[in-house]
Design a protein that fits this description.
Largest sheet: 4 strands, antiparallel
Distance between the termini: 14 Å
Structural class: mainly beta
Oligomer: single chain
Helix content: under 10%
Radius of gyration: 23 Å
Length: about 550
């Protein structure tokens, strides 16, 4: 490790003979020393999540009933066998720092004899099941999907569990648990979100109307050939008075009929508001599947989109479960991966908004697209810290870990740390302006099928230059109402954003290729007026040239 102190405001890194070019975006990991690859598949539905449970800067992977995998760095994983985290029951999982102590805790939702369990992170790479209060009888909380969200913006994440009556031993309705801190939750059964019996599937929280509180969306696919309305609820907390929630009955969101599985809220067209995407199961054509649906948000007026608007992403037939959204090709817009159960292949839809078209392109040559069979959950995260989003897909016929090996373009990766808001930053919106346009991400603890993508906000910019792109503005809208605005931010860095402050680089910013060549950089403070300190590690120092520029393009020389 080398350390230098220099006068500067921008660091530009030129990597010579350092290429991440690949004809495909993803490459399937097949190493037999990787337990994610070699562990057996699960024959029944199971979710998966990328999370950094030990705060070492690398994303770990949890797969319900299958395995818990520690990221050892350099693309290597090891199976965790003594964490105390249950691996015998459950269908879904959701993660958040429920006690705001700085480490992430786990809910495993399930039915039958297992029920739903809360595992508290002890901060030493182990977990302890909470068996007090509402958690004393896990089978009293039977469910399918589950999700954390701070419905009342008090800085504590609350929990919703969707309960499909008639499945996995469930005979009662959904569960809404309010967090009072220190692992203490109270079950509330007096609201509209828990007063109905139906085939509830996977819930998600999102502030879709941008009024400052998270709303609740629950798929209710009955998987019996019948279509029905999903359960969409507006949160009335910010309005004050009246019921906690009211059901959305306006057309088309509240009136369309579906075989709904998962609602995802994303800004697919980069216009600054959240659009809705719903995966559907078999519907009225149970052998070929039912098309998924997309709703464009036009200033809180919603339009259901057709093939002419966005292409086959809303017409392809499939028995669909998860949709996973991320800028997989780092070009400045959100792409979508859909998993299908049954004979259909998974589907990768490439977004073209950054190129001026709202019509998605279906990509056919990715390794996870070619495989058909029962696939449950797709979860994305940058597990190798190289600036692009990698992928894990669970399934019954097969599963897979897929490394993103696309050509590296400028990016930014931001981990949020709440202070007044919940520690995990769930519900926050991150807006980034660069290259003349804005992008937005909302932090969510349920955005696939019974699992979640990494909590970090990732943005690509579609630019590859000799010097990193300078981002004009980053706006972070916290659930507390606090707004943080950072300007002139250097790209190609992993940052920590603490509520009430601007960005700081993480202690680990690494870029690694398939040959285990790496470069890691930590710079602080940023922005800087007088002195900038940086640490770096290089696998091949002779291959790297480092130049320092100020905002006017003037080059400085490092001083020992």
């Amino acid at each position: 490790m080398k350390n230098k102190t220099i006068k500067s405001v921008i660091v530009a890194i030129l990597l010579c003979n350092y290429s991440l070019v690949n004809a495909q975006i993803f490459t399937q990991v097949t190493s037999t020393t990787n337990p994610i690859v070699t562990d057996p598949v699960q024959s029944y539905y199971n979710g998966a999540s990328w999370i950094d449970y030990d705060n070492d800067g690398f994303l770990d992977l949890f797969v319900t009933r299958s395995g818990f995998y520690h990221n050892d760095g350099s693309g290597n994983f090891s199976r965790i066998t003594n964490s105390g985290l249950g691996l015998t029951t459950g269908v879904g999982n959701t993660w958040a720092d429920i006690d705001n102590d700085g480490d992430i805790d786990c809910i495993q939702s399930g039915g039958n004899a297992g029920g739903t369990k809360l595992f508290i992170n002890n901060g030493n790479a182990t977990f302890t099941q909470n068996t007090s209060g509402v958690w004393a009888v896990p089978t009293a909380l039977r469910g399918w999907g589950s999700t954390f969200g701070d419905y009342n913006n008090d800085g504590l994440v609350d929990l919703f569990i969707a309960s499909p009556v008639g499945f996995v031993g469930i005979t009662d309705s959904c569960k809404f648990l309010i967090n009072f801190g220190n692992g203490n939750f109270a079950r509330v059964d007096t609201t509209i979100v828990t007063d109905t019996l139906d085939a509830f599937t996977v819930p998600s929280w999102s502030d879709f109307d941008n009024d400052g509180d998270v709303d609740l969306f629950i798929g209710s696919g009955r998987v019996n050939g019948a279509l029905s309305r999903d359960y969409l609820f507006e949160n009335n907390f910010m309005q004050g008075g009246g019921p906690l929630f009211s059901r959305i009955n306006s057309s088309p969101l509240g009136t369309d009929l579906h075989d709904g599985q998962v609602w995802n809220w994303i800004d697919f067209d980069n216009d600054g508001d959240l659009d809705g995407y719903l995966t559907n199961y078999g519907g009225t054509t149970p052998t070929t599947g039912y098309p998924n649906e997309m709703y464009r948000n036009d200033n809180n007026s919603f339009v259901k989109l057709a093939f002419a608007d966005v292409g086959s992403i809303v017409t392809d037939l499939g028995i669909s479960l998860s949709s996973t959204w991320g800028d997989f090709d780092n070009d400045g817009d959100l792409d979508c991966i859909v998993t299908n159960e049954g004979p259909q292949n998974n589907v990768y839809y490439q977004n073209n908004i950054a190129q001026g078209s709202a019509v998605f392109t279906q990509i056919l040559n990715e390794p996870f697209v070619i495989n058909s069979g029962n696939h449950w959950c797709a979860t994305s995260g940058d597990y190798d810290n190289d600036g692009d989003l990698d992928l894990f897909i669970s399934g019954a016929s097969d599963k897979g870990l897929f490394e993103n090996t696309t050509t590296l373009t400028d990016f930014i990766n931001v981990k949020l740390v709440g202070v007044t808001s919940n520690k995990s930053g769930i519900g926050a919106k991150v807006r980034v302006k660069a290259n003349g346009f804005w992008q937005m991400r909302e932090i969510s603890a349920q955005n696939t099928f019974n699992g979640m993508n990494m909590l970090n906000a990732h943005f690509g910019f579609g630019v590859t230059g000799a010097t990193p792109l300078t981002i004009d503005t980053i706006r972070i809208e916290w659930p507390s109402g606090i707004l943080d605005v950072c300007t002139s931010v250097l790209s190609n860095v992993m940052y920590i954003a603490t509520e009430g402050q601007c960005l700081l680089p993480t202690s680990l910013n690494s870029f690694e290729d398939a040959n285990n060549d790496y470069f890691s950089l930590s710079i602080f403070p940023n922005p800087v007026s007088e002195v900038l300190t940086f640490d770096y590690k290089l696998s091949h120092p002779e291959m790297v040239q480092m130049d320092i520029f100020d905002v006017n393009g003037k080059m400085f020389s490092p001083k020992n």
